[in-house]
Amino acid sequence: MRVHIVYPRFERFLEAYPELGEIPPVVGLWKYRMPPALGPQILATMMPPEIEWKIVDENVAPIDYDEPVDLVALSYFTPQAGSAYAIGDAYLARGVKVIAGGMHPSMLPDDAARHASSVCVGEAEGLWPTILEDARHGRLAARYGPGRPPPETWVQPRTDLFDVHRDYDWYPALVQAARGCPRACAYCNIPGIYGQDIRVRDPQRVADEVMALGGRELYITEDVVMLTSKAMSRYAGELFGAIADRGGAQLFLTSSLVMNMREPFLDLLARAGTRSLYVTFGFDPISRGVYEGDPAMTETARAIVRRVEERGIRFYAAFGVGFDEDDPGVFDRILAFCERAGIITAEFFIATPFPSTPMWHELRAAGRLEHTRFGEYNGAHVVFRPAKMTKDELVAGFLHMWRTFWQGRDLDRSLDCFQYRAGPSRF
């Protein structure tokens, strides 16, 4: 049996705004090409030896629909959905079986099913071998899952699947330590896909995986390891302690301002080799205070930035705008905060109601969703009617933040936490 794992094309973050072309390429933010996310890598790692297979990244090269194939596995998130639907339709018209999986099909399985023979809901471990066996014997079911396998069955994705130097500009390794989240942030689909209970891998095994990657930059993909609960604080202490004891690594972590800010924990992150902490603003009480200009909350946020940076960890800020509380003054308040807090690495995104999230359901019920052209659900477009400003004001403010923040910026200093290949962007 011949299987193609297809990663559909998507519009890169600011591709729709050529007027920002004067901003130099910023690694990891919006112009750089990176390999597919973990979904295709997990499927490829589980492929049995008797099956002929390949990964097709439509962001690198067009799909050859005439190439013989028996099963096409589409793995995609919401901004790829329009491309994925077209790919699925094209293969179905040729009589090829198509299975859709990943974050978007897991959140909107009925919609995805209109463009596929079958849909895999949730996590692939435990389901993919059955899917392959059913496809081989011509008995592919219409739906598989939802799958939420225990951590000991999770696959460690292979690291040799891509020609990194030929096809991609930046290739940080991705390491999973946990799945699931108990929080219900308005725009996040993690609890809906992975559940509200947190499942964690053995911290020693995660540390072994991290160290096996050598000098590579790597992301630990889940921000739940930064939560303040006793259980997660204990787990994170074991994980980062094991990495530190092995000599440390070039870690990139994600979080919000509602994170473990205890001094010993921050010291441990530094000892483990953390180079950057990506912190999302927009939904927690502290960042809401920053957005509203509240002096006490703003000072709390500034103190967090200072404590992170004092340890040699870059505070990489991501500011979401367009939430219902945001008014037209929010953009300049955010920029003023960046200046006062000494933030030198930042990005900005427009709040996006991803399917089946709390934000999606609320806006849909209020009749405020403008459309479901999912290619525009990428954090760079306004796809709903804002509450306290017009769509044009939101887009103008969004672009104003990008231009103003990066104008005259010392890029060598702002990007010194990254390893990357400099050169022209490739839209």
Structural class call reads alpha/beta
Work out the helix count.
Answer: 16
Gyration radius (Cα, Å) is 21 Å
Unreliable stretches (pLDDT < 50, length at least 5) are 421-427
Distance between the termini: 35 Å
Report the helical percentage: 25-40%
CATH topology of the largest domain: pyruvate-formate lyase- activating enzyme
**Please, how many domains?**
2
* Helix and strand run: EHEEHEHHEHEHEEHEHEHEHEHHEHEHHH
CATH uppermost class of the largest domain? Alpha Beta
Counted beta strands: 14
Shape: globular
Lay out the secondary structure:
Layout: E1 2-7, H1 38-45, E2 52-57, E3 71-75, H2 81-93, E4 97-101, H3 103-107, H4 109-113, E5 118-122, H5 128-136, E6 143-147, H6 164-167, E7 173-175, E8 178-179, H7 190-194, E9 199-200, H8 203-212, E10 217-220, H9 230-245, E11 250-256, H10 263-271, E12 274-281, H11 285-292, H12 295-309, E13 314-321, H13 330-341, E14 345-350, H14 358-365, H15 391-406, H16 411-414
Parallel strand pairs: 1-2, 1-3, 3-4, 4-5, 5-6, 7-10, 10-11, 11-12, 12-13, 13-14
Antiparallel strand pairs: 8-9
